[in-house]
Amino acid sequence: MSRRSWDRLPLVGGAAILLVVVWQLGTGSFLHGARTVDPATLAAGALIAVPTTLCCAWRWRLVARALDVGMSLPTATAACYRSQFLNTVLPGGVLGDVHRGLHHGREVADTARTLRAVAWERGIGQVVQMATGCLVLVLLPSPVHAEVPAALAVLALGTVAAVLLLGRHRTLLGCDLRQLLAPPTWPRLLTASTLALVGHVGTFLVAARAAGATAPTTEIVPLALVVLLAMGIPVNLAGWGPREGVAAWAFAAAGLGAQLGLTIAVVYGVMVLVAGLPGMVVLLVEARRGRRRVPEVAGPVPEVAHG
């Protein structure tokens, strides 16, 4: 495949999933989900997003500090809000994180290290989410309980494949891993990731109740974790695609109805978009500061002597 084809894959993949969902379930759930969202639901999502984003920023700061490219917590928090906003308006769901790494790299003059820090931060969050999801799916009744061993096998194969693909960078990544697994760092990374995951699940529960779900929380939480895992797939259309497809499948498998699952996913998507709007403010402020710095960088124009 050409590079252009790879670049289009997230956009095409996300659009294809959405088309299949609309073909199977129609547009009613999308419209119902959009109408269901009220100011109280949006406010709840925005409030939950504050500590959740702080935890993500804390995790990123811990990773960056371990790799000697540290930053302050306020700077990390603003960058995470900006990243979340870009992830919800751009295809793929990871371009905001790439921008976060590049922006930080320009500030510390070490783009390679800052991009690794972002990759580790995202990867640690996904690992904790997958481990928690598998544990919850084993302990609590869920429609995918029987598929957990197969999922673990696929996860193991994916890990082996990643190790083989990154084999030539084994020394560098091993050095990073030793820094991240140092006793002062890894417990804090685990704590930050767990708290961030609690925030994401809490947002999903608010979306579920707003959409009219009456099932017990113990039944919705496993489904929420399955949907959150699907959201980590970097093949989506500004965050839309796998989330809606997996939500419809999971809720249908649980006997709660595919329409309800799709409606909850739509409500969740709108909540996340609104909760990420502070990131747009960060972008506007940075753009304004950038315009102000241009004359300062240029400096005064030297006078030409005439004589």
In brief, what are we looking at here?
This protein has 307 residues and is mainly α. Helix content is 79%, strand content 0%.
Top keywords for this entry?
307 residues, mainly alpha, 13 helices
Question: Care to describe what's here?
Answer:
Helix 9 (186-210) packs across helix 10 (217-231) and helix 11 runs antiparallel to helix 12. The termini are far apart. The protein is an all-alpha fold. Helix content is 79%, strand content 0%.
Question: What's the SSE blueprint?
Answer:
Elements: H1 3-25, H2 28-36, H3 39-66, H4 73-89, H5 95-108, H6 111-139, H7 148-165, H8 170-180, H9 186-210, H10 217-231, H11 242-253, H12 258-275, H13 277-298
Helix pairs in contact: 1-11, 2-12, 3-4, 3-6, 3-9, 3-12, 4-5, 4-13, 5-6, 6-9, 6-10, 9-10, 9-12, 10-11, 11-12
Number of strands: 0
Largest sheet: none
Strand content: under 5%
What is the approximate shape? Answer: globular
If you average the pLDDT, what whole number results? 85
Low-confidence stretches: none
Helix percent band: over 70%
User: Order of helices and strands, N to C?
Assistant: HHHHHHHHHHHHH
> Class by helix and strand content?
mainly alpha
Q: Kindly provide the radius of gyration, computed on alpha-carbon positions and rounded to a whole number of angstroms.
A: 21 Å
- End-to-end span in angstroms? 65 Å
Number of alpha- plus pi-helical segments: 13
